[in-house]
Amino acid sequence: MKFKQAQSLLEIANLLQCEYVGNSNFEVLGMNEIHVVERGDIVFVDHPKYYDKALNSAATIILINKKVDCPQGKALLISDDPFRDFNKLTKHFNPFQFSNVSISTSAIIGQGTVLQPNSFIGNHVKIGENCLIHSNVSIYDNTVIGDNVIIHAGTILGADAFYYKKREDGFDQLLSGGRVVIKDNVGIGALCTIDKGVTGDTIIGEGTKIDNQVHVGHDTVIGKKCLIASQTGIAGCVIIEDEVTIWGQVGTTSGITIGEKAIILGQTGVTKSVEGGRTYFGTPIEESREKLKQLANIKKIPEILNKLK
Known about the structure:
Layout (H helix, E strand, L loop, with lengths): L1 E7 H8 L2 E3 L5 E5 L9 E5 L5 H5 L5 E4 L10 E4 L3 H12 L14 E2 L4 E2 L4 E2 L4 E2 L4 E2 L4 E2 L4 E2 L4 E2 L4 E4 L4 E4 L2 E4 L5 E4 L4 E2 L4 E3 L5 E4 L4 E2 L4 E2 L4 E2 L4 E2 L4 E2 L4 E2 L4 E2 L4 E2 L4 E2 L4 E2 L4 E2 L8 E3 L4 E2 H12 L1 H8 L1
Parallel strand pairs: 3-4, 4-5, 5-6, 7-10, 8-11, 9-12, 10-13, 11-14, 12-15, 13-18, 14-19, 15-20, 18-21, 19-22, 20-23, 21-24, 22-25, 23-26, 24-27, 25-28, 27-30, 28-31, 29-32, 31-33
Antiparallel strand pairs: 1-3, 2-6, 16-17, 33-34
């Protein structure tokens, strides 16, 4: 998430009421999670296991809960609770905007686009030309939709990421300040849910078709011309490359990559990254031919045991 205008390190430190290490005029351009950070971004880290990863990332401002040596060319923000303060920045730079109308006056809707009754279009939404948005679709703030997109009834674009920190008295949510971006010629079925990014974008690539009752987690990037069948659940921060086919009731873990033109057969649990151009099945996931051989061999076990008697 980029700020509308550059901030100084001192301005951010004053906002958070925390100490800082570095030049007070050090330029701060935005804030992002570790997997999408760029130069000028703030990233937060609150566990020693990930200190080195954050300090050596592309981020140039590290919001951290311990005084450490500051890498050359970077700056530190020293906080007793980086998770809390990251949320404070999201609230400040991207606050929730109340809406009391079904279609926000700040929404931009392209020529030829049809909105069926009872749909909600949030603040600063952009919808391209010749789209069809069916009834009871909810499109949250800042969502971007391309041309020739069809979205069926009951689908929700832009809900918060499922991202929590455990506290003694319950769970604190990491606030979501990102977007959902739907490219041209995408089809989305009924009752789908696509969460916005925490700080970046959840992206559905051009020409991809999504069946009914599919969930796509935060910051996931789906490529071009993919097919995703019903009741599939895709976790956050997944990369699905172009022309992947995912059949029904597939589930994935977070932070993995499914390679180009891979085929994932129904009811598979995608527990790790897999190469493109192959067909996969089972939990844990394996190439389908190998998995089916294993299942066939399991059926032979009673016969083998009888022969051993």
